[in-house]
Amino acid sequence: MRAIRPKTRSHAREHIVTIDNDSAPRIMFYGENFMCEDLPVGTRVIYPKRPMTGVANPKAAIRYALNHPEDSDPLHAMLQPGMKVTIAVDDISMPLPIMRAPDVRQLVLEIVCEMLADHGVDDVHIVIALGLHRRMHDWEIKRMVGEKVWNEYWPDRLYNHDGCDPDGMVVLGKTPHGELVEMNRRVAESDLTIYVNLNFVPMNGGNKSMAVGLCGYESLKAHHTPKSIVQSNSFMDPPKSYLSHSFKRQGDLVEQTLKVFHIETVLNNRCFDGPLSFLMKNEDDFTESDRLKFQAMKWTLDKLPFAARREIFMRQPAAYELIGCYAGAVDPTHERTLAKQNEQNCVEVDGPADILLMGIPYISPYNVNSKALNPLLVQVMALGYFYHMYRNQPILRDGGVLILTHPCSDKFDPVHHPSYIEFFNRVLTETTDSYTIEQKYQDELAYNPSYIEMYRRGNAYHGAHPCFMWYWGQRGREKTSRVIVVGADNATVPAIMGWETAGSIAEAIAMARGTMGRSAQITMLHHPPYMISDVM
Amino acid sequence: MHPQPKYKNSAAFYDVDGTLIKINIVHTFAYYASRHASLATSARRTVKTALSIPMFWAADKLSRKWFNEIFYRSYEGASEDRLVVLAEELFEDVVKPNIYPRARDLIEESRRAGCRQVLLSGALDFTMRPLARYLGVDDLIANQLEFVDSYATGKLKKPFVAGATKADIMRSYAKQHGIDLGESWAYSDSFSDYAMLAVVGHPTACNPDFRLRSMARSYDWPVLDLDEAPDRSAARRPQGLAPVRRLRTGKAD
Questions:
Q1: Which of A287, A323, A342, A388 has the greatest number of beta carbons closer than 10 A?
Q2: Residues in contact with A402: Cβ distance below 8 Å, sequence separation at least 6, in sequence order
Q3: What angle do the packed helices B125-135 and B80-90 form, to 10 degrees?
Q4: Which of A152, A314, A412, A447 to mutate to test the interface with B (most CBs of B within 10 A)?
Q5: Using CB atoms, which residue from A135, A171, A454 is nearest to B224?
Q6: What is the rounded distance in angstroms from the CA atom of residue A216 to the CA atom of residue A223?
């Protein structure tokens, strides 16, 4: 890595860097490794904002939120001795990577459980609101809720939601748009449900918590469709998200039927700290020590086998800190949550890019503690989440070219993602059209008894989950003219997904310029941590 | 609550030994050998069975057909009444405690999806009947011993339910019951059941041996572990994390 001269930038615009002749090469995630590449002069690199300072006393902040809720009585005022209460908690899919212990959910649960006990509420169950995600392993739950809650509640009163349990689910009704609303029976029969949310991206939390976290397949398929993704501009911008509108309709029905107290927490974006803190920095600001650390890490990663590299990354919990906690009725609470989250994550950007460059890291919401980021999840990270990380207008103009870096290995976790294997190798090789998949294959995978068994009693994602993952990328697929993957270790996997391959960033940019012209505006998103581009 | 079954003309075919239960036909025979009226005969037959195990193992590795011929010869001279009566005890004492924890759940899910449930086993039919009743399956297809004057000859009636013949039997069954094999499931633990798995649209390896596991990976077949009870997922725990202990039992998960 070349020596780098320090630059002076205004604090307000420090998250945008334009590459010039003596700029340092940029570091991009490349699965369980990195790429370090020189980018063309004029390339715009967008960095996340600096982490906001965490609240000084997280427990006090949580207690304050419970006692000063939004548009609701304080939690203690809603409690009566002998009542039946269910606490629903977000699953392990967020935050990414997992946060350093104690998890913020543990802090909230300990306070809430203590309050319930103080008010003579003994009939309390804690349900992991995983929707159609995989059941969390016992050791994952223990780590998330902490020793105290674990010892008191596991396993009879602390368990995973089961969206396919015919006896454990009830129908609450239908929305005016005809969307079925199913609900976990225990929740539906409780006098009060307390939802403990960890809000990491704007599409999560709010009405989605109850409507998706505790539903079943019949309910979920109302909005997890290619149409709702295509009509969401973007799904990370709730007011413009068709998906959010559907969650809202289902959530309204839930609110009318059940008594729910929402607790939402917001984290800062301190993804890496300690020896890895240089990954949060602009490469132009690297010190000699940072450069040495990066080179040593890259050298080591290059030498290690895949499984060891993955283990190293998975063993690095993030140093996230609580920056906000809000509670009360769903909509006003979520509004405050989103405002705080946007304060941390939104960066202003002038105009969209013609060519968008992004590194795909080793992790996604759906492969925590899995054996690999499988190709379908690479797709959902690129064309789903990262493509949609914008407000106002897309960060990549319609018809633009997306360049991503990932090995795209043909690796799947057979325990967590069994139906993904069939989907990728059978369904996608027959058709990549989301609408055909929805009509022809989705129910088949959803009702496959082997996959249902694996979801209910193993640790597998629901059979239909890979279909949803493919739909997640539908808008990105429709709006981009080309997707070029750099560093793929095979040509087959990218080809199945309709992607082209290039050997280097320079080659990919040359290919992209062939479509977008020599003067095409190139932008690189420098994540993780992720940021949301406010494109003006 | 649950939608109407999606699969109208589908069946789920289960191999039994090693797939739904942890034991095999040698355990069954050992049980019969040890339950003789005379203590001396019981001891003699038990020892003889134990000494034959290497031969059975070798025969099974070479050919399932040879194995059947050699193994079922051990039943020669057994009375039909005794075999049938002891089958109920065999089920209660040996088979039932060795049913895989998630076997009944799998069958229940499959039934809910609308599939016809069929046990397809190389074991003897009278030993499988109590299990079939217990699991509530629709049909049982298993090997049958030949009896003359109510005494076993030590030979099996044809066709032998093993290897490629299982696939033939499934085809005939499908034809007879209007089943679409392309929309059906097969579950087995053994590479020797490759034909049975390959004939359906949804093959699933259950608790597979090494060869079948490798094949399942190559062919993208799902792999189910019916032996792993829910919430007992120690194998996935990253090294260094303390084992989770159950409060009541004190056993490591």
A1: A388
A2: A355, A356, A358, A382, A383, A387, A396, A476, A480, A482, A483, A484
A3: 30
A4: A447
A5: A454
A6: 12
Q: Are A54 and A62 in contact (CB under 8 A)?
A: no
Alpha-carbon Rg of chain A, whole angstroms? 23
How buried is A313 (Cβ within 10 angstroms: 0-12 exposed, 13-18 middle, 19+ buried)? middle
Q: Contact at 8 Å (CB) between A383 and A343?
A: no
Residue in A391, A423, A424 with CA at minimum distance from that of residue A495: A424
Mean pLDDT of A480-505: 97
Burial class (CB in 10 A: 0-12, 13-18, 19+), A211: buried
Strands (E), A149-288: 158-160, 169-174, 180-184, 192-199, 260-267
The 10s digit of each residue's pLDDT in A61-86 is: 999 999 999 999 999 999 999 999 99
- Chain B nearest CA to A477, separation (Å): 26
What average pLDDT does range B139-156 have in this prediction?
A: 93
Q: Structural domains in chain B?
A: 11-224 (3.40.50.1000)
| DSSP letter (8 states) at residue A40 | -
| Per-residue model confidence as pLDDT tens digits over A375-387 | 999 999 999 999 9
Residue in B214, B232, B244 to test binding to A, most A beta-carbons within 10 Å: B244
User: Hey, what domains does chain A have and what are their CATH numbers?
Assistant: 11-42+273-315+350-535 (3.90.226.30), 58-267 (3.40.50.11440)
Over the stretch A287-309, which tens digit does the pLDDT of each residue have? 999 999 999 999 999 999 999 99
